[in-house]
Specification:
It comes from Paenibacillus pini JCM 16418. Keywords: Cell membrane, Membrane, Transmembrane, Transmembrane helix. InterPro entries: Acyl_transf_3_dom. The protein has 366 residues and is mainly alpha-helical. The protein has one domain. The longest helix has 31 residues. It is globular, with a radius of gyration of 21 Å.
Length: 366
């Protein structure tokens, strides 16, 4: 994209980061009520289900943003890349795993575990991703970043047609095959297994990573854009309704359409990315400098907000009530998400005033 200069922030990427981190907070906040009750006909459940559903684009978009930004980089030194890009993520993972492990063990579980036993427990949790629920993202992104020196060369050597072939095959294996498998399981209680479909390079979050790079660097036809817009919008409404009927059938919350490889999640994510990419020029021209600085500041803090927001949620937010009415539920959801986001952002900016704390907690990311 020649209109984006090297030293210029990409406004649509910044906006997508902000929307995605807010969506992640919504996901985690509404998850409490959705998993706390099996009464799917209450107003509070439906509002939580709706907001949770329309926020599902967030995690795939984070991977797409990472791919669009990091795969542009020319990796000339493995050592330099790992020190600058991978090590900060590892530092953040260790630090926040330790913080959440302490909080979980001594404040939530109110354990009397000794220091030595705690350290063993923490080390096991760190290796096996069991210290806190949202830290899985760091394990996934670190794993992908380790491959970047090779993957970046691969995608640059590929033609647009080659990348389309990869993405279509990834979509069929990671999204369509999973959809069919999930449907068959819910009908027969048996998962189908097609060994020929187990192709490692065409499975997992790497597909979203490369999809972000592709959409960032190549233009797609107007027909394709309209198709993805429409499928994305349809998915916004299909996801909560499909989740309701699947949960009703199952008797408990069914997260088939909540998954990061759900077909509705895929279309919401790709639709959002394309939509905001198309608005890049208009956004750059219409948003004034001061607003851009605010957007940039929040965007830069999004990674740190992701790390800290669940701790803030535990400490300051109030749970949604199962029997609350429409107005109460909507107000509490918006208020609590706003409080969690605001306190997380302010706390991150305060912590970032000290470069040593920034280094230890956020790997040097501001």
């Amino acid at each position: 994209m020649t209109h984006i200069l090297k030293d210029k922030r990409v406004i649509f990427i910044d906006i997508l980061r902000i929307l995605s981190i807010i969506a992640v907070i919504i996901l985690h906040y509404t998850a409490d009520l959705l998993t706390r009750t099996n009464d799917f006909n209450t107003t509070s459940w439906w509002i939580s289900n709706f907001f949770n559903s329309i926020s599902r684009f967030a995690v795939p978009v984070f991977f797409m943003i990472s791919g669009s930004m990091i795969l542009r980089v020319e990796v000339t030194s493995y050592r330099h890349f790992y020190v600058k890009k991978v090590l900060p993520l590892i530092i953040s993972l260790v630090s926040w795993s330790f913080i959440y492990a302490i909080y979980k063990q001594y404040f939530i579980l109110k354990s009397n575990m000794g220091i030595f036993d705690f350290l063993l427990h923490f080390a096991y949790g760190l290796v096996s991703d069991r210290n806190y629920i949202h830290l899985w993202f760091l394990y996934a992104i670190i794993a992908i970043y380790i491959t970047v020196p090779l993957i970046s060369k691969l995608v640059k050597a590929c033609s647009e047609k080659d990348l389309r072939y990869y993405l279509i095959l990834w979509f069929m294996i990671s999204v369509v095959y999973k959809l069919i498998s999930d449907i068959v399981f819910r009908i027969t209680s048996e998962y189908i297994s097609v060994p020929i479909a187990n192709i490692p390079l065409f499975m997992g979050y790497l597909g979203y990573f490369i999809l972000g790079y592709y959409l960032y660097n190549y233009s797609i036809s107007m027909k394709a854009k309209n198709l993805f817009y429409n499928l994305g919008m349809i998915s916004l409404f299909v996801t909560p309704v499909a989740t309701y009927f699947a949960s009703l059938y199952n008797g408990t919350l069914d997260e088939m359409f909540y998954g990061n490889y759900s077909i509705t999640t895929f279309f919401m994510a790709i639709g959002a990315f394309i939509f905001f990419k198309e608005k890049e020029t208009a956004l750059s021209e219409q948003i004034n400098y001061k607003v851009k600085k605010i957007i940039s500041s929040i965007s830069k803090a999004s990674f740190s907000i992701y790390l800290i927001h669940l701790l803030v949620e535990i400490l300051v937010s109030r749970r949604l009530e199962i029997d609350a009415n429409l107005l109460q539920t909507a107000f509490n959801l918006i208020f609590n998400v706003g409080i969690i986001f605001g306190i997380s952002y302010i706390t991150v900016k305060i912590l970032n005033l000290n470069k040593y704390i920034t280094q230890v907690l956020f790997g040097g990311k501001s």
